[in-house]
Specification:
Layout lengths: L6 E4 L3 H12 L4 E4 L11 E4 L2 E4 L5 E2 L3 H6 L2 H4 L1 E3 L3 E6 L2 E6 L8 H6 L5 H15 L3 H4 L7 H7 L4 H16 L8 H13 L2 E4 L4 H9 L6 E2 L4 E5 L2 E4 L4 E3 L2 E4 L3 H7 L8 E11 L9 E4 L8 E3 L1 H4 L9 E8 L6 H16 L7 E13 L12 E3 L2 E3 L9 H18 L3
Parallel strand pairs: 1-2, 1-14, 2-10, 7-16, 14-21
Antiparallel strand pairs: 3-4, 5-9, 6-9, 7-8, 11-12, 12-13, 15-18, 15-19, 16-17, 17-18, 20-21
């Protein structure tokens, strides 16, 4: 790379890695500056006692167009979830299946108390509408909140409260469904067109695959940036680095710290608890939703039933998602979560061993309307910005934003 690359990229998350990948394709030299020792940004996986713990419950939607463009799915050994969910409501679990993939489950889904028969017919109409046209067309449609869009489509309060709130609340990290309807349309389309999957080696394998295509000297770790100006970066150590272009590829709050003119996008937080169990509480790789108005859990699953490599032999890994950052301390929160799980699955829950609790204060940028527009990467001459806060708040958005930033840099450099 040399001492003076053409481009300095701040952050080795998915946006920064995809930016670097695109620059490399065009023969432009670059250096990635990563504050920590680990790449991936918020897409990270810890190895704990033979378990793979993603930092927060995360999945890859295989229909993501940017992911399809840059990732080798076969090498990731993706393992899919069951296309549907088990919804806890009225003291029992009710199966909701995607009838286009599980037609044999259509009758049971239609007869479930998770919404009316009319609601299920409306889902089919919604699917047909959201699969029509191109992705670009979706982002040109009128924007409102997800809740207002669902109500406008005629869905009953029953299916909104029992299914849409916990299911999309787990994706948007808020059950009020105030997220942009454009984001809902995008995610619904991705869910309809592909699988929801986990890489066999954990979610961080996505970042590792992207980084593997870059030169070994491309990423400088433990290089925290304290200030950014056009064509100049200052590290926390006081060292100054220069390049023809600077790309800030960090999460939203860090981007706002480094670039005072950039507003903070707002943050949605989430808390994830992991447990080791001798036996899984369910028997299939399916998402479990809390369709009731009580209880602290939003959703749970057993990742080791999706990808067996997530747990050592003879054990199961249970993942529980609590939205936000609860005020209780970790020990009290664990007790509350365990009590609700015991109501669902019985006394065996009390034998589960708590592995770790993750409190992720900035898990997603806020994307309430009017919000969801693709923002231009170039801020000033020689200064560019990318990340999921500049696109859809998703893995796809981070990756696409990184590529678009690289293409803007190439244009600015005349390449």
């Amino acid at each position: 790379m040399g001492n003076a690359p053409d481009v300095l990229i701040v952050g080795a998350g998915l946006a920064g890695l995809c930016c670097a990948r695109r620059l490399q394709e065009s023969g432009v030299s670059f250096q990635i500056l990563e504050a920590s020792e680990t790449i991936g940004g918020r897409v990270r996986t810890d190895h704990v006692e033979g378990f793979l713990l993603d930092q927060g419950f995360q999945v890859l939607l295989t229909a993501y167009p940017e992911a399809q463009r840059v990732l080798d799915y076969a090498a990731l050994a993706l393992r899919p979830f069951y296309p549907g969910a088990l919804v806890r409501y009225g003291g029992a679990f009710h199966r909701i299946a995607d009838p286009w993939r599980r037609p044999r489950e259509m009758l049971r889904t239609a007869c479930s108390p998770i919404g009316t028969l009319g609601d299920k017919i409306k889902v089919a109409r919604l699917r047909r509408r959201l699969l029509a046209g191109t992705l670009a067309d979706l982002f040109q449609r009128p924007e409102t909140s997800t809740l207002e869009a669902l109500q406008g489509a005629g869905f009953s309060a029953a299916i909104i409260d029992r299914f849409f709130r916990p299911f999309f609340g787990g994706i948007f990290l808020e059950r009020d469904l105030r997220t942009s309807s454009r984001m809902f349309d995008f995610v619904f389309r991705m869910l309809a067109l592909g699988d929801t999957a986990l890489p066999a080696a954990g979610m961080q394998a996505i970042a590792a695959q992207l980084a593997a295509s870059l030169p070994t000297t491309a990423i400088r770790r433990q290089a925290r940036v304290s200030a950014v100006r056009a064509q100049r970066v200052t590290l926390a150590s006081g060292e100054e680095l220069h390049a023809r272009a600077i790309v800030v590829a960090t999460e939203g709050p860090e981007a706002a710290r480094l670039l005072p003119g950039v507003p903070t996008p707002g943050s949605r937080s989430v808390t994830c608890l992991y447990f080791a169990a001798a036996q899984p509480p369910i028997s299939e790789p399916i998402l479990v939703l809390n369709g009731e108005p009580t209880g602290i859990i939003n959703n749970m699953c057993v990742p080791s039933l999706v990808a067996p490599s997530y747990a050592p032999p003879g054990a199961a890994l249970v993942s529980v998602t609590v939205l936000g950052n609860p005020y209780q301390d970790d020990r009290t929160l664990e007790q509350i979560v365990r009590a609700q799980l015991a109501e669902w699955f019985g006394a065996a829950v009390h034998q589960w061993r708590h592995l770790r609790t993750y409190r992720i204060l900035h898990a997603l940028p806020e994307q309430s309307p009017p919000a969801l527009t693709l923002r231009e990467p170039q801020l000033d001459p020689g200064l560019f910005l990318c990340g999921d806060h500049r696109d859809t708040a998703s893995i796809n958005g981070a990756m696409a934003s990184g590529r678009r930033a690289a293409e803007a840099v190439l244009a600015a450099l005349g390449r």
